[in-house]
Amino acid sequence: MPLSAPTLKVNAPVEKFPVGRGFYQLEEDELYIPVEYPGEKGRFFSYLDSETVSMQIDRDGRLIFIEVVLPRRRWQAKGSFVPPESVEPADVRFLDFRDSLKRPAIYCDKSRHDIMIRFLKGPADQNLKIARNVIVQVDAQSRLVALWVFGITDDIAGKEIATWRKEFHKTETESVTA
Predict the structure, then answer these.
(1) Which of 49, 163, 169, 174 gives the lowest tally of CB atoms within 10 Å of its CB?
(2) Does residue 1 form part of some domain?
(3) Is 149 among the domain residues?
(4) Residue 128 maps to a domain
(5) Sequence-distant (≥ 6) Cβ neighbours of residue 163 within 8 angstroms
(6) What is the 3-state secondary structure (H, E, C) of 22-38?
(7) Of residues 116, 114, 133, the one with CA closest to residue 124
């Protein structure tokens, strides 16, 4: 039986904060959201999948990649699309692995550049920034209520995502050698 929502462990934020960004692959009609950690190359260890969303997790339980295979034209645009206002940085680890999830609801703003992937209908107790441009909402039982991604960029043939990753790792290398 598929999980409604994964269980998370919330810790104080790490010293070097990760970055995330959404890249909509126009030729594939899919959204890719990499989450990059300074000084590391995220290595796939496990996954959580639904019909429309796949989340890749590293050995430490950190989110490293999200793929949304539901085409953008089928996301539900909401006029009242309001991101969480009070957000705290956190180090969030996924405790569930290699499992299937119930199909989440997918909402977006009218421009379709911000997205919310909603796993549970109930209210969130915490709004946590897990990476630049990525927020998770967690309920009182430490379950993932929703995942928000901001600033989605249109991409063709992975050019934008490749440039973004190259810039991130270049800037990171420069700050280490300086």
Answers:
(1) 174
(2) no
(3) yes
(4) yes
(5) none
(6) CEEECCCCEEEEEEECC
(7) 116
- Strands 23-25 and 88-89 turn out to be unpaired
How far apart are alpha carbons 62 and 131 in whole angstroms? Answer: 11
In terms of residue numbers, what domain contains 106?
8-177
Which tens digit of pLDDT belongs to each residue from 148-171?
A: 999 999 999 999 999 998 888 776
Evaluate whether residue 2 is within a structural domain.
no
Residue 82, both tokens: 């309001």
Q: How confident is the model at residue 175 (pLDDT cuts 50, 70, 90)?
A: low
Could you read off the pLDDT of 4-45 as tens digits, one per residue? 999 999 999 977 889 999 999 999 999 999 999 998 888 999
The whole-angstrom separation of Cα 31 and Cα 53 is 9
For the chain, what is the domain count? Answer: 1
Find out whether 145 and 138 touch, Cβ atoms under 8 Å. yes
With beta carbons less than 8 A apart as the criterion, state whether 114 and 151 touch: yes
